Amino acid sequence: MTVRESSWGALEPDDRIGYRAEWDNTLDRFSAVVQAYGDQRLDQDIATQLIDVARILADFTPSLVRMQLRQPSADDLRRLGILSAA
Length: 86
Hints:
Blueprint: H1 5-9, H2 13-38, H3 44-66, H4 74-79
């Protein structure tokens, strides 16, 4: 079963709080893995998967904004080469 994106807009913020807390924790973990990438502590195959996930998150950013959820930091995405430094 998939959740349609438009259904999130119909929910009150209080109804999304549990999801928001879980998502914030996930993004904190994502940032920690990006830090490990920056410190060159990841195997190449894991680094490749991390970059793939970052691209998906970057593409999904407009939906995250509409759902009023936190997005991956621009600094993290720049570290992974997803966003330009300009």
